[in-house]
Amino acid sequence: MFDRIAGGYDRLNSVMTAGLHHAWRRRAVELAQVGPNSRVLDVATGTGDLAFALAEAIGAGGQVVGADFAEQMLKIARDKAAAGAVGPATASVKFEQANALLLPHANDEFDAATVGFGVRNFSDLDQGLRELARVVRPGGHVVILEMTTPQRPPLSTFFKLWFDRVVPVLGRAAGDTAAYSYLPNSVRRFPGPEELAARMAAAGLGDIRYVLTAGGIIALHVGTVVT
Predict the structure, then answer these.
(1) At 187, is the secondary structure helix, strand, or coil?
(2) Tally of structural domains, the chain
(3) N or C: which end of the chain has fewer CB within 10 A?
(4) Which residue in 69, 24, 59, 9 sits closest to 39, CA to CA?
């Protein structure tokens, strides 16, 4: 499915979020607390926007690895990198095909790991969280940027209208109704912010905090890998 929608993914992201997804990714980068010479893994990197934002924050001397299982998404990310999405004063960025539930990296290999709008697609959330914690060194951070379901009107009413009515229409216009019907369903069945924080703790993360933004539609979680 993600390979099918890769060509229109960036455009529809901008339409569905009114362009705000870039600001939410920048906030995720801030929470990762990375700096010069950091190595960061961006899981479910998609077309690479969060990986590129991380590279800008790290600067020259560091490295960002973007991992995804959808090769067509990765192709677009690599094309964007080749077209100058990252400059000479940013960290190097490489993209690799990988399974988030069995990451091809050693324990403690990275200073931080991020997931932007992808963790709800893990077929085994708890295993994916354990893998994120495993590959980050003690004291490093795991950051999850994800959509969540607002509980109070008027945002809850707007959210239901937008996802039940408008998003499927956008999907039909993009030529893939099934994919954009999957999106609201995946958000509905995903754990709420408190439950996700608890499951991050069970995966080996501590000092877990989360921030709700966009009226409660977006949640940013950060946890620290404990020794």
Answers:
(1) helix
(2) 1
(3) C
(4) 59
The span from the CA of 27 to the CA of 96, in Å, is: 24
68 contacts 45 by C-beta, under 8 angstroms = yes
Q: What is the pLDDT of residue 155?
A: 66
Alpha helices in 95-192 (DSSP H): 125-135, 155-161, 167-174, 177-189
Q: In what order do the strands lie in the sheet with 39-43?
A: 92-97, 63-68, 39-43, 110-116, 136-147, 218-225, 205-213
Instruction: Give the CATH number for residue 42.
Output: 3.40.50.150
Q: Is the pTM of this model over 0.85?
A: yes
* DSSP structure class, residue 129: H
CA separation for the pair 132, 126 (Å, rounded): 10
Task: Please compute Rg for the chain using Cα positions.
Answer: 17
- What's the rounded Cα separation, in Å, for the pair 143 and 71? 23
Length of the chain (residues): 227
Is residue 68 within 8 Å of residue 104, measured between CB atoms? Answer: no
Domain of residue 81 covers: 2-225
Cβ-Cβ contacts under 8 Å for 21 (sequence gap 6 or more):
13, 14, 49, 117
Contacts of 215 (CB under 8 A, 6+ apart): 150, 155
- Is residue 187 within 8 A of residue 148, CB to CB? The reply is yes
Q: Give Cβ neighbours of residue 33 (< 8 Å, ≥ 6 apart).
A: 112, 141
DSSP-derived letter for residue 60 is T
The pLDDT tens digits for 166-207 are 666 666 665 666 666 666 677 778 899 999 999 999 999 999
